């Protein structure tokens, strides 16, 4: 019985000593490694910002369309811009549904989200950027009932989307 108790006690001590040894190794490893980050408190500077209206053109269901919106952002270290952006469809895009009382339906849409932009050669007169907008949007199709006594619209379909 004494031998079993001694062996269990010895095994327990060995496990404790390994645990203590691992902590020492981790402490030495953590002290030798420095954390690398993109921005630190010492070198992060707000170097500008902007608020701007934006017009975009494109095609929605074979119709020329206009999206109007805007962006707001802050520029850090003259290279990285972080902000918000949003856009909405301005004109009416019509198409024939073929299965309603009024054969003409309309499309409405909009999207917005977090705007990020990196600027290459920011200290030159001519430079270029890579803008990315990560956000959400929505598209809806509706019947536009427009008569003298009733000015309403009936929703046919509504959906949401992830925009990148």
Question: Would you kindly provide a brief summary of this structure?
Answer:
The chain is of the alpha+beta class and 164 residues long. It has one helix spanning 2-32; strands at residues 46-60, 63-76, 80-89, 93-96, 104-120, 128-146, 151-163.
Class by helix and strand content? alpha+beta
Helical coverage, percent range: 10-25%
Unreliable segments (pLDDT under 50, ≥5 consecutive)?
none
Residue share in β-strands: over 45%
The DSSP helix count reads 1
Average of per-residue pLDDT values: 75
Would you write up a description of this structure?
There is one protein chain. The protein is an alpha+beta fold and 164 residues long. The protein folds into 2 domains: 1-36; 46-163, no CATH class. Helix content is 19%, strand content 56%. The protein has 1 helix and 7 strands; from the N terminus they run αβββββββ. The protein has one helix at 2-32, and strands at residues 46-60, 63-76, 80-89, 93-96, 104-120, 128-146, 151-163. Strands 1, 2, 3, 4, 5, 6 and 7 form a 7-stranded antiparallel beta sheet that branches. Strand 1 and strand 2 form a beta hairpin. The N and C termini lie far apart (70 Å). The mean pLDDT is 75.
């Amino acid at each position: 019985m004494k031998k079993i108790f001694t062996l269990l006690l010895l095994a327990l001590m060995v496990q404790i000593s390994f645990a203590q040894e691992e902590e020492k190794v981790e402490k030495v490893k953590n002290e030798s490694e420095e954390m690398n980050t993109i921005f630190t408190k010492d070198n992060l500077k707000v170097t500008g910002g902007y608020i701007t209206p934006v017009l975009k053109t494109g095609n929605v269901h074979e119709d020329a369309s206009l999206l109007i919106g805007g962006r707001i952002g802050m520029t850090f270290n003259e290279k990285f811009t972080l902000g918000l952006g949003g856009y909405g469809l301005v004109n009416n895009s019509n198409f024939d549904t073929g299965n309603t009382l009024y054969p003409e339906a309309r499309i409405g849409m909009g999207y917005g989200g977090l705007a990020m932009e990196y600027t290459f050669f920011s200290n030159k007169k001519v430079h270029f950027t890579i803008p990315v907008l990560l956000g959400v949007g929505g598209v809806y199709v509706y019947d536009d009932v427009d008569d003298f006594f009733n000015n309403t619209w009936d929703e046919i379909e509504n959906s949401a989307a992830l925009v990148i």
